[in-house]
Queue: 2 jobs
Job 1
Amino acid sequence: MKYIDEFRDGEIARTLAAKIHAEVRPDRQYAFMEFCGGHTHALSRYGVPALLPDNVKMIHGPGCPVCVLPIGRIDQAIGLAMNQKAIVCTYGDTMRVPASGGLSMQKAKARGADIRMVYSPLDALKIARQNPDREVVFFGIGFETTTPPTALAIQQAAKEELANFSVLCCHVLTPAAITHILQSPEVKQWGTVPLDGFVGPAHVSILIGSAPYEPFAEGERKPVVIAGFEPLDVMQAILMLIRQVNDGRHEVENEFTRAVTREGNAAAQKVVEEVFEHRESFEWRGLGEVADSALRIRPAYARWDAEQRFDLSYQPVPDHKQCECGAILRGVKRPTDCKLFGTVCTPENPMGSCMVSSEGACAAHYSYGRWRDIPVVTA
Ligand code: SF4
């Protein structure tokens, strides 16, 4: 299949691995964070770490949409369904994220809450039209990739004057989170495994373009290489990062030129700008409160804002005591460092959010952990 097969070619992968081995300096360590869960998935699925030299380490970042959702936000959605008797609609993976009191949206549904899985916010609009006597809330989560469809749904609801539809907006922003990771005390003090650069998100960057990473790369003096989600994309990005580090450069480079431009998708950015504004602060699972890192609905669309409509206030809730998702999302620990990994916590019975989605670091390690047994390729 075009754009798939040629980016999974084993021969090219071996050539790229040989180049990486030839160009790394043996006298230094390289630590790169793949921000996006899609890259974590690709690394694990295709065994890319086994092809890298021992002194090149990949560290998982917080770019998995359901992994960063704090318990308090899921509790809000469940509360709307259980206490307000609203029909709450959301994407499939969100249904399984653990919430307070041993609940998840899926378990709340089993207890009678009217919670429905949808593929798009437009499905939620349809449900609202079909149920004029019920409140219908779309639980909008995710990064810049899923924000434009939510914005369009709100504009459509406004156009139709659909009075029983609203959105619980938990959309978050990528560049703010990348900056926050480097500025967090743990990472600043984390002298033994410093971060040398970032593999930048693929789908997010299609929307926002590569330009928003430029202030970060310049300000933090860290290279960013935006990469596609196929294994050769990620390997090429790692090679580009190694070259930047060796040259002492800290630029934004774009490996994913078949889809990402510097400016991004202007039409999608416009609709997002019309409907949403920045929140001063938002809690991320694992990162805590991050300034200017999420969106809320503008006052012009307040009628379709579930937080205002139901007068919701946010209550932070601590994670399961033994779950290491917070440390994993900051890149401080790996999934196998968690005592619950693969025993108490599995994809069938997730104890934390990182085990829910295939993009979550724990789920990716659990599903594709065999890469650890593949022999390392040398140049
Ligand atoms: S294995 Fe489960 S409990 Fe442990 S960090 Fe991952 S999601 Fe949390």
Job 2
Amino acid sequence: MFEKERFIEACREALSEQNPQAAIRELMARGVSEPARIVQALGEPRRAGVETIYRGSDLTILNLYWGPQMQIKPHDHRMWAVIGIYGGRERNVFYRRSERGLTQHGTKELEVKDTIPLGESIIHAVTNPLDQITAAIHVYGGDFFAQPRSEWDSETFEEHPYDVANTIRAFEESNARLKST
Ligand SMILES: [Fe+2]
């Protein structure tokens, strides 16, 4: 049974394990194996947005509602992460740095109950390919909001310092689509 406070506590405890990321992936897999329980605990997804469930210097837990057709530019995290999906679908496109900025090197479509660990140096773009909200829990092995990092223009692959305003705009645009449908 998923409970928010218990999940936070278990993730914090997992930080003292030999492989915190693997331990948290196990917790995540157990959590998203019962997606309805997470909806019960965190609420029904109605609008695109992000809720910070926990933020500390060594751990960030986010509850993400990706809006219909929402796209997040290629970006890095500079810390390990674990993603778990409990509603909808999340398309991940992975990139590597190259002479022309970035080169695509794979995609991964995550569905409900899927989890994925992401390495510290991963660069990815995230899309919700659906006309409904995708609900995901993202756990990061550090203070996600304090970490300076990069994002890349989706077309030119030019690298810039990450700008949270772009992400906020993407949430707002997808909420506008949500209202018009
Ligand atoms: Fe990301």
